[in-house]
Design goal:
The complex is a heterodimer of chains A (about 120) and B (about 120).
Chain A (H helix, E strand, L loop, with lengths): L3 E4 L2 E4 L5 E7 L5 E7 L5 E8 L2 E4 L7 E7 L2 E6 L8 E8 L11 E2 L3 E5 L1
Parallel strand pairs in A: 2-11
Antiparallel strand pairs in A: 1-3, 3-8, 4-5, 4-9, 5-6, 7-8, 9-10, 9-11
Chain B lengths: L3 E4 L2 E5 L4 E7 L5 E7 L5 E8 L4 E4 L2 E6 L4 E6 L8 E8 L12 E2 L3 E6 L1
Parallel strand pairs in B: 2-11
Antiparallel strand pairs in B: 1-3, 3-8, 4-5, 4-9, 6-7, 7-8, 9-10, 9-11
The chains are: A mainly beta (about 120), B mainly beta (about 120).
């Protein structure tokens, strides 16, 4: 019973290609997130998505776009991939924050993206 | 700029010893969370401590929070080889990414190695 799942687990592609990573959660959570973890293990928030409200980290290039077909899914589309996009991407979910405070986040297993 | 920073970056101890990791942050927070990441896996939530709490326990874990010093510590008692992982603190600074934002900011982590 996987709580947060991502596909694919590994993605190897050429520069300039467009790719997508899928994320699904079966926890009934209202909020989903995408994080990028670089080679030094630094984990950085990219997006949070809550009830069609998208909050974007201003440092994320507009080549990255999250798409949510429903509350249980938040997919990540990346256009014109660059070498610097190589990293591990994590999806996470949580209950809707209350009073501005976040709740426990549940992470997927990660997708290792390698851009050649 | 980065909100949370763990110290030390790496820690190696013998099985049975206690492990202490520290986290410092810069702005006021609503809560602080600790996560564990095993090699090649996603993050797993360990414990959440709210800004009005000073200490919290969960099994062999003990977390303290000193809001006046903007610091937290994670103590793992009687460590086991299975505790080998990277440990991250994450802070929820309300509005850090804009009014009403629901985002956690992670530190770079402490890599703990427990030698059998």
């Amino acid at each position: 019973d996987t709580a947060v799942s991502q596909t694919p687990k590994y993605l190897v592609t050429q520069m300039g290609n467009d790719k997508s990573i899928k994320c699904e959660q079966n926890l009934g959570h209202d909020t989903m997130y995408w994080y990028k973890q670089d080679s030094k293990k630094f984990l950085k928030i990219m997006f949070s998505y809550n009830n069609k409200e998208l909050i974007i980290n201003e440092t994320v290039p507009n080549r990255f776009s999250p798409k949510s077909p429903d509350k249980a899914h938040l997919n990540l589309h990346i256009n014109s991939l660059e070498l610097g996009d190589s990293a591990v991407y994590f999806c996470a979910s949580s209950q809707r924050p209350r009073a501005g405070a976040t709740d426990t986040q549940y992470f997927g297993p990660g997708t290792r993206l390698t851009v050649l | 700029s980065q909100q949370g920073e763990e110290d030390p970056q790496a820690l190696s101890i013998q099985e049975g010893e206690n492990a202490t990791m520290n986290c410092s942050y810069k702005t006021s927070i609503n809560n602080l969370q600790w996560y564990r990441q095993n090699s090649g896996r996603g993050l797993v939530h360990l414990i959440l401590i709210r800004s009005n709490e000073r200490e919290k326990h969960s099994g062999r874990l003990r977390v303290t929070l000193d809001t006046s010093k903007k610091s937290s510590s994670l103590l793992i008692t009687a460590s086991r080889a299975a505790d080998t992982a990277s440990y991250f603190c994450a802070t929820d600074a309300y509005g850090l990414a804009g009014a009403g934002s629901y985002q956690l900011t992670f530190g770079k982590g402490t890599k703990l190695s427990v030698i059998p």
